[in-house]
Structure formats: C-alpha cells, structure tokens
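Title: Request for sanity check on 3-oxo-tetronate kinase prediction

Description:
We are preparing a figure and want to confirm that the structure record we downloaded matches what your pipeline produces today. Could someone re-run it with the sequence below and paste the raw structure tokens into this thread? We only need the token string, no images.
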Amino acid sequence: MLLGCIGDDFTGSSDLANTLAKGGMRVTQYSGVPGGPGEPDVEAGIVALKSRTIPPAEAVALSLKALDWLVGQGCRQFLFKYCSTFDSTPAGNIGPVIDALMQRLGADRTIVCPAFPATGRSIYQGHLFVGDRLLSESGMEHHPLTPMTDADLRRWLAPQTKQGVGHVAATTVFQGGPAILDAIDGEAKAGRPVVVVDAIRDEDLLAIGHAARDLRLLTGGSGIALGLPDNFRAENLLASEPSAWTGSDGPAAILSGSCSTMTRTQVARYAETAPALEIVPDKVMVGEQSPDGAVGWALEQTDGVPLIYSSADPESVKAAQQRFGRDQLAARLEEFFAETARRLCAAGVTRLVVAGGETSGAVVEGLGLSALSIGPEIAPGVPAVKASDRPLWLTLKSGNFGDADFFQTALGVLKGEHHDG
Ligand SMILES: Nc1ncnc2c1ncn2[C@@H]1O[C@H](COP(=O)(O)OP(=O)(O)O)[C@@H](O)[C@H]1O
Ligand SMILES: O=C(O)[C@@H](O)C(=O)COP(=O)(O)O
C-alpha cells in the first residue's frame, strides 16, 4: 500500500476512492479499521470512519488507530479526507484530528484544501465557495449536524487546532509547484504549519498535488488527491491495469436520510414516478413507523424501485430536533436506516442506493461490510461500489452530489449499464 487515507465519513471516503481509482490506482475502501492486513495489490487504502460528528476525543482516537494500521501496511504518504464543505464545528473534528495525525507522523506542516471544482467547491482568499455563494450562504448553514456559518476556512479552523493556521493565496498557486512549496515552507517557518491553500480549478489541485509529493500528510476534500496518482506513477510504483469491476442486476432499494438541498431535489424528482415512503421523525420516535413496516411496504412495490426517505426541509428538521434532541433523533433515524438495510438485504436486495454521509456510515456499518471495491463514477464524487464479501452493489451518495435524476442513473450503473459522466 502506497497511499494511506483516512475518511471522516463513508460517502466522503467513496468520493476519494473514486478520484484515486479514476487516476489509475487500485483502491479499496475499508469500513472502519481492519482487523488484519489489507490485500497485497491495494495501492491506495482508505479507512472510512464515522468520525465527522462524534466527540473530538473519540474522532482522534479512531483516526490514530486508522493511521497506525495504514503505517503498518507500508504507506509512505497519508491523506485525511473531510468534506468539501468542511463540515465541522468550533470543537472539531477536523482540527483535532489534523493535530493528532501530524504529531503521530512527526509532520511539521500540512495543507488544508477542501476544494472540489467539479462540484462547485472552490477556495479563494481562504474562503470556501459553493458555486457562486459563500459556504455560509449555500444552504450548508442549515446542516442538521454541522451548520457552516462562516466561509473563512482560516477563521473556522483556528479554534479547532492548537497550531497556527496559514494561507497560500491563489496568486501563488497559479505560479505552480515550486512557488506553492516555498509558500507552505514560509508559513510553517512563521509558526503557521496548518496551511489553507486556495484552489479554484482542477489544474490548481493538480499543481498542489504534484507539489505535495514529499509531504507526509495532506488534508482536504477528494480534489486534493487529483495529482497524487501521477506522483506514484512517475516512480513506476503503480500496476498498469486497474482492477476490473462489474455491476449486477437484482432487487434494489433506495434509502435517503440526507436533508441536503440536492438530495431533497432528487427525492422529489424520483417520487414523481416511483414508489416513495416518507419516514417521519415523530412516528419513528413513538414506534408508529418501524424498519419492519418500511421493508414490508418496500417488498410490496411492483411498480418501480422503492425509495424510503426521511429527507426533510430545514424548518421540519429544526422542529424535530427541538422536540427530540439533535443527536438522539439522528441516532434513531440512522439506526432505522441501518436496520431497514439489514432487513432489505436479508429479503434479497442486492442493489442499494444510499443518500447521506452519516446515513451511509450507519448502513454500511449496520450491514457489517468490511471492504468495498470501487466501480465506475455515477456522478462527480460518487462511484458505484461493491461489497468485497457478498453479492451487494451500492452507492453512497454525499448529500449535495449528483443531479436531479441521480437515483435513476445510479440504479442503472449498479446494474452495469454504461453511463457518460
Ligand atoms: N427528518 C429529519 N429530521 C431531523 N434529522 C434528520 C431527518 N432525516 C435525517 N436526519 C438526520 O440528519 C443527518 C443527515 O446527515 P447525512 O446522512 O450525513 O446527510 P448529508 O450527507 O446530506 O449531510 C443524519 O444524522 C440523519 O439521521
Ligand atoms: O467532499 C465531499 O463533499 C464529500 O465527499 C463528502 O464528504 C460529503 O459528505 P456528506 O454530504 O455528509 O455526504
């Protein structure tokens, strides 16, 4: 294993896996820290954690455990993947995990770069944009668990880390690799070793990735991995043939616990023509809606693949959180989807589309899938994946990824249908 990655959620990890696989690396996504060694032909190993919104000390402990495992696999470079919308709170978990990983690796500098231009996330003057809006006006300010109310990454990160936060501006990034490296060096020497690097276009990310060839630790969104396969290829370290992947036709279901703007559009579009069951927090909390009932409903549907969703608008989410408590409600809904997935698979479902990072983590952990192999891209940042140990094809869709028809497209790709971007 050459590149060791730690993802703070499961959709984000598959997003990173997608970038590295497209770059020609043999990638495996592990669910949590594996108990034994990885397969010998894996070039990039991604340990997916559900650590984005757990208490910071737990996120640090889990991330260090993942790091130790990756070090044990012989990785020479490490990447901490978080969301391209920098999902975190003033307490963490991005900053505390960066501090701990740097310390364990003896790294005296790292970069922070959540840019992902293909999905509209760019960084300019230290500020994160989603399309033409500042992050804090993009809808992410309403996120149920990590409301992002400030787009200045330096200001948002500062209370999360014990180290100084630096910045390399776009004007420097445009000058290319040596200028970027010099600027990072200058920031580190000035006591600001955690360096936010601007990136607006894929070519910026490629330049940053190539410049980061000798950085022990990188942190960012999947975009920061764009240039990394080339670095390994230049040293003749990659196998010439990426591993093969095939889809499969079989009973399918869609589960959505994501309340992000794009997921809600996808849910609304899909429900226009296919069977859809809304899961309502009030009913779940009093046991009026159960996984058993939802699966019973799903199995009765003969006119299209069933969608089971709790996706709701920000006002409903807020009201439900006030009634039941944010974390308690999230935990109950995540367990609802995990149990629903277990029952669906037990009933023969072999294709599962899951929307939402936390929701996907709950589902994949609930199903006990230990590793995923990476298939074709369905939408930017969203690959088809396959469970390594059973006949189950999935996709784990990040909240704001995909277009309005994503669910339909995903079902086709999991079946093995060809899809152009
Ligand atoms: N109707 C709802 N009301 C309140 N919380 C919800 C509702 N539906 C889902 N949730 C919770 O909101 C969180 C959504 O996060 P996630 O699955 O990561 O989606 P995204 O990828 O869009 O961020 C989950 O913890 C989920 O259980
Ligand atoms: O970087 C990204 O935007 C995604 O890979 C990601 O992490 C999204 O997380 P969710 O929106 O919570 O699914």
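Thanks, this matches our download. The pocket of adenosine-5'-diphosphate (ligand 1) is lined by residues 144-145, 257-260, 263, 281, 310, 312, 316-317, 320-321, 329-330, 333-334, 356-359, 398-399 (CB under 6 Å).
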